[in-house]
Specification:
Rossmann fold, 2 domains, 6-stranded parallel beta sheet, 15% strand, globular, binds NADPH dihydro-nicotinamide-adenine-dinucleotide phosphate, binds 5,10-Methenyltetrahydrofolate, binds magnesium ion, oxidoreductase
């Protein structure tokens, strides 16, 4: 049996068409959604991702602003910049690219972002709202995964989902979203004693460890849905996921490629969140009775 490919690029394109037309409607009301991206330091991978984000903003008719700060920037200076963006009427979404230089306290920076402009969904207010199934900005990668599964018609309810990885930006929120969708969720991480024991029981396996070829065909149940979040840069610059794609594709029911899988969905959900933030800013102006 050969797995069906989940074409993230194509699913992303369709979703972006829809977001683009929503942007046009908002522009007709005089609001152009605006995203500010802060890039501190000179991480090459970060630079590539940030460029992708800006290109997509352009394509969808949104404004984007890139704020580049030196590696040596102080925490105070970074917070000052965020405060300025929190107060700007033209900026609806703020993204601080991670990882940050090591002398900066990531938690303090994330908490400085206004929860209403937190398009990454990393602020504790949004995390809390998500955990209690309230309206929130949902982290882009987990939201993109759910969107992909929706588009292939997966009924998540009652499925056993195994998430490998428990980071605050991918693994942990991914498991929480699946729980909200009535899945049974198992988290695995670097201290998990026998990874295979869990992964072979997964109906849906989400690999977000950042370890090339961590997942072999022996880790996967026949017909399972395999979602590969990993972004590992091999020597020579070639990008590969956490899953041994060539081996696993013969056993899985569905599988996402890298590149062209989860990555394009992450960017798309960032655009979705920026649009949502822009819409939110209108309803806030209205309820404040000022403009
Ligand atoms: N496609 C996309 O849009 C995105 C892709 N990524 C990629 O996804 C991957 C994960 O990102 P991120 O969550 O930020 O990474 P982190 O390094 O923050 O987290 C990795 C997680 O994987 C766990 N882990 C590491 N090694 C193993 C192992 N051998 N077995 C089981 N679990 C393991 C760690 O466990 P422990 O907690 O015990 O340390 C940790 O929870 C990276 O490759 C990253 O580049 C990230 C964001 C978006
Ligand atoms: N505040 C913050 N928010 C993030 O969302 C965030 C972050 N920091 N730091 C880094 C990770 C990583 N991440 C990716 C997004 C898109 C692709 C992507 O578009 N990937 C393409 C290929 C890109 C390439 O070719 O290099 C693909 O998979 O097809 C990858 C990785 C967002 N992250
Ligand atoms: Mg993300």
């Amino acid at each position: 049996m050969a797995a069906e490919l989940i074409d993230g690029k194509e699913i992303a394109r369709k979703k972006q068409d829809h977001i683009g037309s929503e942007v046009q409607k908002l522009k007709a009301e005089g609001i152009t959604p605006g995203l500010a991206v802060i890039l501190a330091g000179n991480n090459q991978a970060s630079r590539t991702y940030v460029k992708n984000k800006q290109k997509t903003c352009d394509k969808l008719g949104m404004n984007s602003m890139l704020i580049e700060l030196p590696e040596s920037v102080s925490e105070q200076e970074l917070i000052r910049k965020i405060t300025e963006l929190n107060e700007s009427e033209d900026i609806h979404g703020i993204l601080v690219q991670l990882p940050l230089p090591s002398h900066i306290n990531e938690k303090a920076i994330i908490e400085a972002i206004s929860p209403d402009k937190d398009v990454d969904g990393f602020h504790p207010i949004n995390i809390g709202r998500m955990m209690t199934a309230q309206d929130a900005f949902i982290p882009c990668t987990p939201a993109g995964i759910i969107e992909m599964l929706d588009s292939i018609g997966t009924d998540i309810s009652g499925k056993h989902v195994v998430v490998i990885g428990r980071s605050n930006i991918v693994g942990k929120p991914a498991g929480q979203l699946f729980l909200n969708e009535d899945a049974t969720v198992t988290y695995c991480h670097s201290k998990t004693a026998d990874l295979k024991e869990y992964t072979t029981r997964a109906d849906i396996l989400v690999a977000a460890a950042g370890k090339a070829k961590l997942i072999t065909k022996d880790h996967v149940k026949n017909g399972a849905i395999v979602i590969d979040v990993g972004m590992n840069r091999k020597e020579g610059g070639k990008l590969c996921g956490d899953v041994d794609f060539e081996a696993v594709k013969h056993k899985a029911g569905f599988i996402t490629p890298v590149p062209g899988g989860v990555g394009p969905m992450t960017i798309t959900m960032l655009m979705h969140n920026t649009l949502k933030a822009a819409k939110l800013s209108i309803s806030k102006v209205k309820s404040n009775g000022r403009h």
